[in-house]
Amino acid sequence: xxxxxxxxxxxxxxxxxxxxxxxxxxxxxxxxxxxxxxxxxxxxxxxxxxxxxxxxxxxxxxxxxxxxxxxxxxxxxxxxxxxxxxxxxxxxxxxxxxxxxxxxxxxxxxxxxxxxxxxxxxxxxxxxxxxxxxxxxxxxxxxxxxxxxxxxxxxxxxxxxxxxxxxxxxxxxxxxxxxxxxxxxxxxxxxxxxxxxxxxxxxxxxxxxxxxxxxxxxxxxxxx
Length: 224
Hints:
- 50% of the residues lie in helices and 12% in strands.
- By secondary structure, it is α+β, with helices and mostly antiparallel strands.
- It has a single domain, classed as Glutaredoxin (3-Layer(aba) Sandwich).
């Protein structure tokens, strides 16, 4: 008898995207509502702003350049704060001093897959940036997060000092873009159904149930 593979949920996400943090919470709520399903969640990289320098950019300047003025930015993020509160996320945007280039964060997430620690690392990165206002461009921040998540932090420290898997990470981002992903979060369920945006938990749960009911080739996967 052949074992049936779990339903895959491939989440295309960026660490500096607040809606991706909200989407993670909504996915978790959806999964709790369908405990009968065997689901495997995997995280894939995306960059909302690949033009950011490796050392990041002053947050106030970044917001001013993006929105035209800080008042418009504040109004935009007020809506996100409200959405975050409904999901138990205490966004502290005022504590963020630097908008980071997230390539190194995505390398860390990629490495964490080997130890099945992706979800833990993604959660800690979101918490560090959006709740604690930490600088995600600093290697020591990422090394500490890797240690707290249970990774081999000494190895992570060594790898971050090199360009290891930088090309692969950029290629994965390009793959997502070439497949039609233009915004995040994007949930690809069972390699067949796409939910674009931080959908409500009931919508995600319904898509998971539909995927289970219509499976003809269990184990369909998104390219790694």
